[in-house]
Design a protein that fits this description.
7-stranded mixed sheet; 451 residues; elongated; alpha/beta; single chain; 7-stranded parallel sheet; 24 strands
């Protein structure tokens, strides 16, 4: 089932994460999914379920892969819960932003999955009949099946009864009713919620409270029955091994940055690297003073290095090793936070200096949106002229914005990013299921040592 809402801020993440935790608490294997490119919500989903949080995004991967990727992620689960993005019908506009079209919207993904929708309605500032009018509008507007409503932020028993009575007249079942729950909220900052990996024990406790809140406030049996009403899904699960070229021989080790500063990444990217023949290992630039032994390639994804700039700067040994690694022509792929970490400095704090003279600073406004990008140079993953679909999500800028050899170009900017030998770094986030050849090329660049 898909957890959607009329608008952002209605409580989708609270309800979806709470439902995942509640069903997992009943011993169910729960498959967690998120519509759109967001990295942060899937981190909470993973805490709630013990399985990787996975994204379903027709723009990033192509709509033909949404069902196969869903089946891949849901293998072995008893129930799958998909958290929507923004308002139910808010999708990509022609400029790459959300709000005007319906492509890549929650409704689009629900239609591709043929899944019932549960509408989370913030009733804090509405009486019963207005809530009913809102639900009636969303139920009748498009082709998705609204199978029920969860009322959120109710003020009292009387308020709940008023809303239930009005919705009963529509024939739309109320599957849950939550009071205002400030103690269960998750803290946020400049890019949204604080990632679960940064909060450790606090995040675990927050997810547990959400599960208890939802279990006490929602009809889990009715919700499970609604999920079971989804028709059988045709097609085969996505198979990373079928998407890439593997070669026999010793597996080159690819080190992927993790830890609190680098929390953004799609599970399928690492699965593709492994399928292409890599030995994928993790390292934490906040704690590890050297790369894992035998590392032949490095991937540094997104995250919040600006929050940890002083700690990253203090790890001088790893910074120097990464600079020497890239300088020796070893392959390095970096997105967004990785770009900042490879720069000369970040808000005055020394970074790796792989990109000599590049300075990164916090910006006054958020840069966010889908991008149709073209590679303007050969790199460790792309070839000149290749087109990819990605997204930007940052509140920093670099000076300069691109190097002598840029990585990409898209319609909302000129050249962007840096290609320096076998190092490529930019603000562009990519889901490699949409470009699986990138994994094969990255592993090939690491070298093949045959036994």
């Amino acid at each position: 089932m898909v957890i959607a809402a009329p608008a952002s801020g209605s409580g989708k993440t609270t309800v979806a994460t709470g439902l995942m935790a509640a069903f997992a608490g009943r011993g169910e294997a729960v498959s967690p999914h998120k519509v759109g490119p967001d990295y942060i919500d899937p981190g909470y989903h993973a805490l709630a379920t013990g399985r990787p949080g996975r994204n379903l995004d027709p723009w990033l991967t192509g709509e033909e892969r949404v069902v196969p990727l869903f089946l891949h992620g849901a293998a072995g689960a008893g129930i799958a819960i998909v958290e929507g993005v923004m308002g139910l019908y808010d999708g990509r506009t022609g400029s790459g932003d959300f709000g005007g079209g319906d492509f890549a919207s929650t409704a689009h993904v629900a239609t591709l999955l043929d899944a019932p929708v549960v509408l989370v309605v913030d009733a804090s500032a509405a009486a019963g009949r207005s809530v009913a009018a809102l639900v009636h509008g969303f139920r009748s507007f498009g082709s998705v099946r609204v199978g029920g409503v969860i009322l959120n932020r109710l003020g009292s028993d009387a308020h709940e009864a008023m809303c239930r009575d009005a919705l009963d007249g529509l024939g739309v079942p109320v599957l849950g009713a939550l009071r205002r729950h400030e103690d269960a909220a998750t803290p946020s900052r400049h890019l949204g919620l604080i990632p679960a990996a940064e909060r450790d024990a606090d995040a675990v406790a927050s997810v547990r409270r959400l599960g208890e809140l939802v279990a006490a406030s929602c009809d889990l049996d009715a919700l499970r029955a609604l999920a079971r009403s989804a028709p059988p899904m045709a097609g085969e699960p996505w198979d990373p091994a079928a998407e890439v070229e593997d070669r026999p021989g010793r597996r080159p080790r690819v080190a992927v940055a993790g830890g609190a500063a680098f929390t953004f990444g799609y599970a399928e990217n690492e699965e593709l690297l492994a399928a292409a023949g890599a030995d994928v290992v993790r390292f934490d630039p906040l704690r590890d003073e050297s790369l894992p032994d035998g590392t032949r390639g490095v991937v540094i994804g997104g995250g919040f290095p600006e929050v940890y700039a002083a700690e990253l700067a203090a790890n001088e040994r790893l910074r120097a090793e990464l600079a020497a690694f890239a300088g020796a022509g070893r392959p390095v792929y970096a997105e967004c936070a990785g770009l900042l970490y490879l720069a000369q400095e970040l808000d005055g704090a020394a970074m790796c200096g792989v990109l000599d003279g590049v300075k990164a600073t916090m910006a006054p406004r958020l840069t966010l949106g889908y991008r149709a990008a073209v590679a303007v140079a050969d790199s460790v993953v792309a070839r000149t002229g290749e087109r990819v679909h990605g997204h930007e999500f940052h509140r920093t800028v670099t000076d300069p914005a691109y190097g002598d050899t840029a990585a990409w170009q898209w319609s909302t900017s000129g050249p962007a990013g840096f290609v320096q030998g076998d190092c490529v770094a930019s603000y562009l986030h990519l889901h490699w299921a949409g470009s699986p050849r990138f994994a094969s090329r990255m592993v090939h660049a690491c070298g093949w040592e045959h036994d």
